[in-house]
Amino acid sequence: MDKRPTEELDRILEQTAPDQIGDYFLSNRKDLADTNKAFCYYFKDVIDAKHIMLKDVYARAGLTESYGSKIVSMEKHTKNRDVIIRLCLAGHFTLDEMNRALKLYGFNELYSKNPRDACMIVALNNRICDADKINEILKANGLKEI
């Protein structure tokens, strides 16, 4: 059975009092997002909307399909922010999409006051999603490659 649309849940919440939120969770648990999997759902939704195959994303990100799928599914957790950045670049994420993915994964968004992040922001704003081209920009500015 498909989950109910968000709009329907929004209508239910409009009629829910603060002391009824527990009942809302109980009666709608099948329809609620698993917050531990929010990154996974978001990442796959963006990739699907762009009609890109996950295996292609893993390959472009320089990850094995096995490792990449474990990262995306949150089966394994990486502490390396660059892994998520490479996955997002390989999926042709916009700046807003990448920032949301980073935040959902538990990392800081790209920050314009950080020189390395600023280079990536400029690249994304200029629709450069190729990690090698971004690495050239980073290297030319004396910054660590992704």
Overall 3D shape: elongated
| H/E topology pattern | HHHHHHHHH
As residue ranges, the low-confidence spans are none
- The share of residues in extended strands comes to under 5%
Distance between the termini: 41 Å
How would you characterize the largest beta sheet? none
Structural class: mainly alpha
**What portion of residues is helical?**
55-70%
Number of domains: 1
Report the strand count.
Answer: 0
Characterize the structure shown.
There is one protein chain. The protein is built from nine helices and no strands. With 146 residues, it is mostly helical. The protein has one domain (36-140). α6 (81-90) packs antiparallel against α7. The longest helix has 12 residues, at 38-49. The chain starts with 5 loop residues before the first helix and ends in a 6-residue tail after the last helix. 21% of the residues are buried. The mean pLDDT is 91.
Topology of this protein?
Layout: H1 6-14, H2 21-27, H3 38-49, H4 54-60, H5 65-72, H6 81-90, H7 95-105, H8 115-125, H9 131-140
Helix pairs in contact: 3-7, 4-5, 4-6, 6-7
Provide tags for this entry.
146 residues, 9 helices
Write a short abstract of this structure:
The chain has 146 residues and is mainly alpha-helical. The protein has helices at 6-14, 21-27, 38-49, 54-60, 65-72, 81-90, 95-105, 115-125, 131-140. The chain has one domain (36-140).
